[in-house]
Design a protein that fits this description.
With about 200 residues, the chain is an alpha+beta fold. The protein contains 7 helices and 4 strands, in the order E-H-E-H-E-E-H-H-H-H-H. The longest helix has 27 residues, at about 90-115. The protein starts with a strand and ends in a 6-residue tail after the last helix.
């Protein structure tokens, strides 16, 4: 297998965190430079038609895109430790929280950064209204998530899962906007982040 990836981007980082938690370090990696537009080249589009990163090329030549689909496939290849759930109930709650984090935390953050940070003008035409809207949504969800973490140590339940990876990748990407959970404003999210930094997913 071959993983096409890009440094610092949150979706590739989700897959890297997943691999670190699984203890997998022998996957072939191909770096794609987003800021130089390598993901839009004809060669890369032959693998990933929508120019999405990451992309996992399987041994038979087929290519998986979408970071969550890649992680789901890797879960089947490397089943331990389990990160997607072991019972129908647990799996459903992990799915719910992971989707919430992806659509209400990571997506607004992407709007905030990609449409508000001057470095990202090389990627797309920025829409000014999306940056403050994204920031507002991101901060609102961060406050909600802080409340959830007041009663448990992990995003989706009593153990580490893919939902923690998605949230941690989001918090990591937020550094581009010079944001991290404040110990006074978001104490539970702040403490959770510190725990994640001590895990394999937090090691580079």
């Amino acid at each position: 297998m071959k993983l096409y990836t890009s440094a610092f981007a949150p979706n590739p980082e989700r897959v890297h965190m997943f691999l670190r938690e699984k203890g997998v370090d022998d996957l072939e990696m191909v770096q794609i430079n987003i800021m130089e537009g390598e993901h839009k080249s004809s060669d890369y589009r032959a693998l990933s038609p929508f120019a999405q990163i990451p992309a996992l090329q399987l041994d038979d030549g087929r290519v998986l895109t979408e970071s969550r689909a890649i992680c789901r496939y890797l879960e089947g290849i490397y089943p331990e430790p389990n990160l997607f759930g072991t019972t129908p109930e647990e799996t459903a709650f992990i799915e719910m929280y992971d989707r919430r984090v992806e659509f209400m935390f990571l997506l607004p953050l992407a709007w905030w950064i990609r449409h508000g940070h001057p470095a990202f003008t090389v990627l797309e035409k920025q829409i000014a209204d999306l940056a403050p809207r994204g920031e507002k949504g991101f901060r609102r969800f961060a406050k909600w998530l802080d409340g959830e973490l007041a009663n448990r140590d992990f995003v989706a339940g009593d153990r580490f899962t893919i939902a923690d990876i998605t949230a941690f990748a989001s918090v990591g990407f937020a550094r581009v906007a010079k944001w991290k959970p404040d110990a006074e404003e978001l104490p539970n999210l702040h403490t959770w982040r510190a725990r994640m930094l001590e895990r394999p997913c937090g090691q580079k």
